């Protein structure tokens, strides 16, 4: 059994497999299928300061080797979260991380302040990359100055581990990564979904109610991997890689490209037990090559 | 029963007509109680173009044989692949998902309305309602005679009424044209599954009679267990996931303009 422990800033994970926000509910939805505590960490569904109903149906389109979604951060707001969800997920012994969203810097900051007070939440993931909201979201992650500003302000308000989740819908993702690192991000997670669209040729209308949505799944994996590789070389903080990881082999590619940990997203929809299979597969890979620790393959791409 | 993900073994795959197949699947582990209206989310084997699972209403459960069956209508690549499954092949499934219909009480008079492949949950519903001792009436609608399936099996469970769009069998027109639905015949509850416009029309008639109506929705979904939040429908208390808070809804809770 290889050593799977990794560190994301102050946060020690028993293994490098986390769930991607928006694909794992608050964890409890998976209790019937797996022991959630076996995961390195779980990321809750994106939370906002106030209740959001999300976008109209249809919100999903199946695409070649992937899917588009346009959920639009449906959630009941932070008060509901603290009152109803937080007590329930406090039962988990694994780390529970909140994905934080806002439509203004003030909202991001207020939300981060509220979550800072929650004892059992050791980290937040600052989501500056949601493509499905009209205000905020990706606007922060695709503009260097705004990405800097929101990271700086949230950093002042939040004193635990701050992960910033980047959008791939930019010309140079390394520039954004360096900028948020300079403003105090403890870790960078990437990538969020790619902006895409699908058209129903029978009706000649867009499939999604919002016309465009976020593309995820194996279709985006090669691009995600390239971006993780670029960002890992650009920053010193640990990188959390994601984008179309369906199995352990995919995850290992991300480690070799420089990710310290990975998040599993869309694969959870197809197989609710996939995360545990990936942990097992990573372990088998390390054993097979007599590698004693997962950290020994991080960024070890042979050129 | 608790939600489970496991491989099931095909024990039969019977072609019922030109585009409907009845797929019976055996579980290795003892099946728990499945409620009429619940569904199973099937991973289509050997179909790389079918990225997500495909949801199917549970058509029937045989607890003695430990099998459940689903009605597969071939509409695309995934369902076509399922129609080709052979005995002893394995398929991965997540089940049981969602909430079922409210079961009737003994001697209650109920009407089950199924349109097209929407008849699927009505078989198990009719069976269980009959066992309870309800007075079961079943209204089945399809485009044409050749699209009607399983009428004999339904007839064993209750009084069956038929409509076809072209008049080739039963009453000509949609289910909403049939007198059993239109004449207020004192049903305690109406249960409906089919295309959205049909369900809305049935709900409207039921409402005008003051009859409770439950419908089973089939919004497209990615997961089936409440985490992708893609299959929402508007309700009087906000957007709700069809997969976990449905697929069965009492129409009075939905924001339908009827």
Secondary structure topology:
The complex is a heterodimer of chains A (303) and B (258).
Chain A: E1 6-8, E2 11-13, E3 17-19, E4 41-43, E5 60-63, E6 66-69, H1 78-89, E7 95-100, H2 105-116, E8 123-127, H3 138-141, H4 144-157, E9 161-165, H5 173-182, E10 187-190, E11 194-197, E12 199-200, E13 205-206, E14 212-216, H6 221-234, E15 239-241, H7 248-257, E16 261-264, H8 267-270, H9 274-288
Parallel strand pairs in A: 3-16, 4-7, 7-8, 8-9, 9-10, 10-15, 15-16
Antiparallel strand pairs in A: 1-2, 5-6, 6-14, 11-14, 12-13
Helix pairs in contact in A: 2-4, 4-5, 5-6, 6-7, 7-9
Chain B: E1 4-15, E2 20-27, E3 39-43, E4 54-62, E5 67-73, H1 77-83, E6 90-97, E7 109-115, H2 120-132, E8 135-142, H3 151-155, E9 159-164, E10 171-172, H4 179-182, E11 189-193, H5 196-209, E12 212-216, E13 232-235, E14 238-241, H6 242-245, E15 248-250
Parallel strand pairs in B: 7-8, 7-11, 8-9, 9-10, 11-12
Antiparallel strand pairs in B: 1-2, 1-6, 2-5, 3-4, 3-6, 4-5, 12-15, 13-14
Short summary:
The complex is a heterodimer of chains A (303) and B (258). In chain A, 31% of the residues lie in helices and 20% in strands.
Descriptive key words:
heterodimer, A: 303 residues, alpha/beta, TIM Barrel, eight-stranded parallel β-sheet, four-stranded antiparallel β-sheet, 9 helices, B: 258 residues, Elongation Factor Tu (Ef-tu), domain 3, Rossmann fold, six-stranded antiparallel barrel, 36% strand
Q: What is the architecture of the largest domain in chain B at the second tier of CATH?
A: 3-Layer(aba) Sandwich
For this structure, what is the CATH class of chain A? Alpha Beta
The separation of the N and C termini of chain A measures 28 Å
CATH superfamily of chain A: Aldolase class I
Radius of gyration of chain B: 17 Å
Write down the secondary-structure element order of chain A. EEEEEEHEHEHHEHEEEEEHEHEHH
Structure class of chain B: alpha/beta
Strand order of the largest sheet of chain A: 3-16-15-10-9-8-7-4
| Shape assignment of chain A | globular
- How does CATH name the architecture of chain A? Alpha-Beta Barrel
CATH class category label of the largest domain in chain B: Alpha Beta
Mean pLDDT rating of chain A: 96
Give the oligomeric state of the chains in this entry, treating copies of one chain as homo and distinct chains as hetero: heterodimer
Number of domains of chain A: 1
Helix content of chain A: 25-40%
Which residues of chain B sit in consecutive blocks of at least 5 with pLDDT less than 50?
A: none
Q: Hey, roughly how much beta strand do the residues of chain B contain?
A: 35-45%
How many individual β-strands of chain B?
15
How many structural domains can be distinguished in the coordinates of chain B?
A: 2
Main sheet record of chain B: 7 strands, mixed
Helix/strand-derived class of chain A?
Answer: alpha/beta
């Amino acid at each position: 059994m290889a050593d799977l422990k990794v560190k994301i800033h102050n946060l020690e994970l028993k293994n490098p497999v986390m769930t991607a926000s928006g694909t794992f509910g608050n964890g409890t939805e998976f209790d019937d299928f797996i022991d959630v505590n076996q995961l390195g960490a779980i990321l809750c569904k994106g939370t906002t300061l106030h209740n959001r109903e999300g976008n109209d149906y249809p919100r999903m389109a199946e695409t070649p080797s992937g899917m588009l979604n346009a959920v639009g951060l449906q959630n009941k707001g932070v008060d509901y979260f603290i009152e109803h969800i937080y007590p329930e997920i406090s039962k988990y012994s694994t780390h529970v991380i909140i994905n934080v969203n806002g439509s203004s810097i003030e909202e991001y900051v207020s939300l981060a302040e509220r979550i800072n007070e929650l004892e059992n939440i050791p980290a937040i993931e600052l989501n500056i990359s949601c493509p499905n909201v009209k205000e905020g979201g990706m606007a922060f992650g695709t503009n260097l100055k705004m990405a800097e500003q929101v990271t700086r302000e949230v950093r002042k308000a939040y004193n635990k581990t701050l992960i910033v989740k980047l959008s791939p819908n930019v010309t140079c993702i390394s520039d954004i990564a360096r900028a948020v690192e300079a403003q105090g991000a403890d870790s960078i997670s990437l990538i969020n979904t790619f902006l895409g669209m699908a058209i129903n040729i029978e009706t000649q209308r867009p499939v999604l109610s919002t016309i465009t949505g976020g593309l995820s799944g194996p279709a985006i994996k090669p691009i995600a991997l390239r971006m993780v590789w670029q960002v890992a070389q650009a920053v010193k903080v640990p990188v959390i890689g994601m984008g179309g990881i369906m199995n352990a082999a995919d995850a290992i590619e991300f480690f070799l490209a420089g990710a310290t940990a990975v998040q599993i997203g869309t694969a959870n929809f197809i197989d609710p037990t996939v995360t545990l299979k990936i942990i097992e597969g990573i372990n088998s890979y390390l054993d097979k090559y007599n590698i004693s620790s997962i950290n020994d393959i991080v960024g070890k791409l042979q050129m | 029963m608790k939600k489970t993900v496991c491989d099931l073994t095909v024990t039969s795959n019977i072609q019922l007509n030109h585009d409907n197949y009845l797929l019976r699947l055996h579980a290795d582990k003892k099946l728990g109680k499945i409620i009429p209206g619940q569904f199973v989310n099937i991973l289509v084997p050997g179909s790389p173009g079918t990225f997500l699972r495909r949801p199917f209403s549970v058509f029937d459960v045989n607890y003695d044989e430990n099998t459940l069956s689903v009605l597969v209508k071939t509409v695309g690549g995934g369902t076509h692949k399922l129609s080709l499954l052979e005995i002893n092949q394995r398929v991965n499934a997540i089940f049981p998902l969602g909430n079922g219909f409210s079961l009737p009480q003994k001697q209650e008079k109920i009407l089950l309305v199924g349109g097209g492949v929407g008849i699927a949950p009505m078989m198990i519903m009719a069976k269980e309602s009959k066992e309870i001792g309800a007075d079961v009436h079943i209204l089945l609608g399809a485009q044409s005679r050749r699209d009607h399936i399983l009428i004999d099996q339904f007839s064993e469970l209750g009084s069956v009424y038929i409509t076809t769009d072209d008049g080739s069998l039963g009453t000509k027109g949609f289910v909403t044209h049939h007198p059993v639905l239109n004449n207020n015949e004192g049903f305690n509850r109406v249960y409906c599954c089919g295309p959205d416009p049909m369900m809305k029309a049935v709900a409207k008639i039921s409402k005008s009679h003051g009859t409770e109506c439950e419908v089973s929705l089939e919004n497209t979904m990615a997961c089936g267990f409440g985490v992708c939040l893609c299959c929402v429908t508007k309700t009087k208390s906000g957007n709700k996931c069809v997969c976990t808070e449905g697929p069965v809804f009492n129409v009075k809770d939905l924001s339908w303009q009827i």
